């Protein structure tokens, strides 16, 4: 009986992970499409300026479009990292190769991987920014407390 219920749990965990990954991938593709649209707008604006030679303030317009692209690209990077985390993977700090989360060395470039000190910073940052999912506040607080304990012990 234990085996069957464990199996059920595993299956629903996997399904949840796949659903999450699919959602992130859709978001990446969606943003890529949006970036293409912004590129098109930029191209159009530059061309219009060329054709009409009007004194439109192209610089302001382009700055807006460029920051839109920056924003969309950032979201894509974040989604990519989320997918890596879901698959227990991370990026090499040197060559950005996809490697196992627990790897000590990068199999591609040989760079020694540091134990992610960013986890704590990330968690703290998220809590400070109020980016904690509703109902997870308690859990987040506990994680942060744990991390604080760990860091304290490291320092001694
Ligand atoms: Zn590497």
How is this structure best described in words?
The protein is mainly alpha-helical and 156 residues long. It has two domains: 2-101; 117-156. Helices cover 71% and strands 4% of the residues. The chain is built from four helices and two strands. It has a two-stranded antiparallel sheet. A hairpin with a 6-residue loop joins strand 1 and strand 2 (98-100). It is elongated. The structure holds zinc ion (ZN). The site of zinc ion (ZN) has 8 residues, from loops. Residues 92, 94-95, 97, 106, 108-109, 111 line the site of zinc ion.
Question: What does the secondary structure layout of this molecule look like, with pairings?
Answer:
Elements: H1 2-52, H2 58-86, E1 89-91, E2 98-100, H3 118-128, H4 137-155
Antiparallel strand pairs: 1-2
Helix pairs in contact: 1-2, 3-4
Bound molecules: zinc ion.
Zinc ion binds next to loops.
Keywords:
156 residues, mainly alpha, 2 domains, 4 helices, binds zinc ion
Major pleated sheet? 2 strands, antiparallel
Strand content: under 5%
The residue ranges in which pLDDT falls below 50 over 5 or more consecutive positions are: none
Write down how many β-strands occur, each being a DSSP E stretch of 2 or more residues.
2
Supply Rg. 22 Å
Morphology call: elongated
- Report strand order across the widest sheet: 1-2
Q: Ligands bound here? A: zinc ion
The helix tally amounts to 4
Number of domains: 2
Termini distance?
46 Å
Structural class: mainly alpha
Portion of residues within helices: over 70%
Summarize the structure.
The protein contains 4 helices and 2 strands; from the N terminus they run ααββαα. The protein has 156 residues and is mainly alpha-helical. Zinc ion is lined by residues 92, 94-95, 97, 106, 108-109, 111.
């Amino acid at each position: 009986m234990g085996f069957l219920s464990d199996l059920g749990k595993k299956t629903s965990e996997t399904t949840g992970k796949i659903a999450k990954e699919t959602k992130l991938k859709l978001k990446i593709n969606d943003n890529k499409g949006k970036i293409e649209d912004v590129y098109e707008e930029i191209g159009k604006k530059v061309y219009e300026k060329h054709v009409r030679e009007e004194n439109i303030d192209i610089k302001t317009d382009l700055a807006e479009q460029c920051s839109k692209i920056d924003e969309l690209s950032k979201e894509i990077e974040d989604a990519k990292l989320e997918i890596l985390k879901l698959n227990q993977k991370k990026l090499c700090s040197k060559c950005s190769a996809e490697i196992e989360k627990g790897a000590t060395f990068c199999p591609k470039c040989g760079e020694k991987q540091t134990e992610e000190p960013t986890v704590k910073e990330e968690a703290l940052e998220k809590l400070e920014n109020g980016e904690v999912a509703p109902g997870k506040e308690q859990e987040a607080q506990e994680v942060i407390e744990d991390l604080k304990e760990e860091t304290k012990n490291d320092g001694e």
